[in-house]
Design brief:
12 helices, alpha/beta, 9-stranded mixed β-sheet, about 40% helix, Rossmann fold
Amino acid sequence: MSALTGLRRVGKKAATSVAALAVAGGLMAGVGAGTAAADNRDWLRPDSTGSCDWDQAGYWVQRCDVWSEAMGRNIPVQIQPAGRGGNAALYLLDGLRATNWANAWTVDANAPAQYVDNNITLVMPVGGAASFYADWESPATYDLNNPVNYQWETFLTAELPTYLEQNFGVARWNNSIAGLSMGGTAAMNLAAKHPDQFRQVLSWSGYLTTSLPGWQTLLRLALWDAGGFNVNAMYGSVISPKRQENDPYFNMGGLANTDVYISAASGVWGPEDAETPLNQKLNGTPLEWLARISTMMWANKASSQGIGFTADYPVTGMHNWNQFGSQMVKTHDRVLDVMNAW
């Protein structure tokens, strides 16, 4: 039995007690948010299996099964409703090794706690390892006996917005999107391709030049290492024009009227990394260094094309949750200002 199935059964069998504990925890975490927050947050929305469940993350986070016709299955989404019924949302995308049991923004960086007092809905899709949240052309792994059907762009921009609008009051046009690493790349692509949905985009240590010479080889190795994923299944052959159409470096024109924030650290170990194991340091340094190079390349081109953005290049920091989490905290007020969601 999978972790997700186990959580489902616990939630369904003990709905009353779990709900009571979750609401109590959420109310305690959100002291100062007022009764309006409780009114909008203390009831479970309907989903594809009957109703959402209270999530173990607390802070009024609900775990909802949202049906995806494109992928032919339910997609779990962790959702924290807006504190006072606001119609803005912040989509938070995961990294390359996204799990099927929780979005890392509820585990490795406590985004629900950061936004618990604010009038914005957090939308945290679960799953999609190595997907770059794209619509893939063919099964994502080499195991054709158990095909992995990735149609994440369709889900995030066509199917999920309908569900959020109907059940959480999220406006289709009033959204911000952010992500770390792979999620940062995807956030930039989705915002550029769907400016009518996303008013703001934030890339934290994303890879923003994915189809330039050499980068496809790096991507191929990364996807294979993440679980045997086939990069050719994403957009076709190496010469496919879809590779550049889904490369932030080449599709930045769609961000002309979007609030853009990009960041990447130097890869140099800082005081915040003192307790990080050596093997993680050795891995995190080159990964962040590559993110820094690609982000600066994107920034140079965007400047030459008149695309407005804010860039942050910390002097120290590796490709890890110390870096990603600090950027989430640093940009908290910016998100609320742009989305008018205090």
